[in-house]
Amino acid sequence: MTTNNAAFVPPWARWTLATVLGLTLLRLAVLKVSPLDLLPDEAQYWSWSRDFAFGYFSKPPLIAWLIAATTKLAGDMEYGVRLSSPLCHAVAAFALYRLGATLGDGRLGFWSALTYATLPGVTFSSTLISTDAPLLAAWAVALLAYVEAPKAPTIRWSAMLGLSIGIGFLAKYAMAYFVVAAALHALWSRDARGFWLSKRGLLAVAIALLCIAPNVIWNATNGWATFGHTAANAAWNDSATDTEGALPWIGSQFGVFGPILLGALLVRIALLRRHPADLTERFLLCFTLTPLVIVLVQAVIARAHANWAAPAYVAGSVWAVRWLLATGRKRIAAASIVLHLAVMLVFYVYAAGVATMPLPKVLDAPLAFRRGWSSMARDVRNRSYELPYASIITVDRKTMAALTYYLRDHPAPLVIIPTGPVPGNQFELTQPIDAKTGAHGLLVLPFEGDSPVTQRFEKADAVGRLFQRIGTGRQRVYRYLEVTGFKG
Fold first, then answer.
1. pLDDT digit string (tens) for 98-117?
2. What whole-number distance in Å separates Cα of residue 185 and Cα of residue 183?
3. Under 8 Å CB-to-CB from 138, ≥6 apart: which residues?
4. What mean pLDDT is reported for the chain?
5. C-beta contacts of 168-171 below 8 A and 24+ residues apart
6. Whose CA is closest to 395, among 456, 460, 444, 431?
7. Which range is most confident: 132-136, 434-438, 458-462?
8. How many CB atoms lie within 10 A of CB 314?
9. Where would I find the Glycosyltransferase RgtA/B/C/D-like domain in this sequence (predicted)?
């Protein structure tokens, strides 16, 4: 691939710095004033951050480490928990500026950084803490290091490559897509094969393995909990056998990457036979299509979430912009950014609580699922003071996570009733109900109707309900029961 050593080219570097910093400050401000509650997954990650470890039940440890650091600085409120997310996306954007400038010029770097920073998926991700934000930052830095390492006069970039790959794995196991993409690129490029077989390439591999080793050891000593959960999450046993899972996933990618950009990529792919890719485009193609194809196969086999192929759009941002600029279609790239900025502003207005007008159900969904958790916890707190309950009990991970965060100063222990003989989540592993906590408790059930779980107590008396309207056409219902004598 062709590279350009003049990576920091004014005024493009200054414009990139100004725009990315501006967007990051906007995102931090939205987080600061937003009334949105932590999602159960976010609350679960926060609970992990209270106990340092090299692994957790369903995810590698980096997300918990980041939350531990940011809450140490900014406190345990929602803002402190989510603080690292916009910062990670800023790191990714700056890395893509350098990557674009190295592969082309400062103009390509600026457009690449701005395109990534305004993607709808990044806009949404910046308002919550998830494993995607640190993964995408590590992926972007790894891409840059992979380009710089073969021609660098020292081993600095090789070490950075290994470190970023290792950190990516500690963020999310989807970093494995990077390894697959690098292997495919090595098959396509003699220079890439030479690098990976050189001392510098082997150094990068060694550093990556050294970073990953503590998590592998943790898994080995904990029944391979995270690896097993990751495999179970793929749900291959629930095979769809057709495209019923793939079509919704394909449609969701237009929302993650944006309809204009994804359309441009599809057009470029269609034209590859007529206009073959050069060395640089082959590199970007490998790291864009590999995650997309892997997750598409997963969607056909069973199911896939919209964000599972998010790493594709790191290199995809550079690839799409490079082709649009090279073919005189700058206005299309600009139109995409304008569209994404408009979506961003509308979303942030609602996320910040500035606008309260009801949205259509499909548009309100990203916000609706982040409402009601704190008010539910307040209601549980008030009811728990009515009687001297020995514990607060629930049966599902989401409710348990929300209560763990929003009742973090409550004196009564929070426990969960396991769903089977083998723990199904971190709470069932660390906070299961026992005879003492089940002697007399307030049971919180997040559904209507009779539940077989009540049969596991000697006595279960209904003491109330909670109806919550959380958004357009959506509500949650909880039942409260006073339970005594847990049978096991």
1. 999 999 999 999 999 999 99
2. 5
3. 164, 165, 167, 168, 171, 175
4. 92
5. 168/134, 168/135, 168/138, 168/139, 168/142, 169/60, 169/208, 169/211, 169/212, 169/215, 170/60, 170/61, 170/62, 170/211, 170/212, 170/215, 171/60, 171/62, 171/63, 171/131, 171/134, 171/135, 171/138
6. 444
7. 132-136
8. 31
9. 58-218
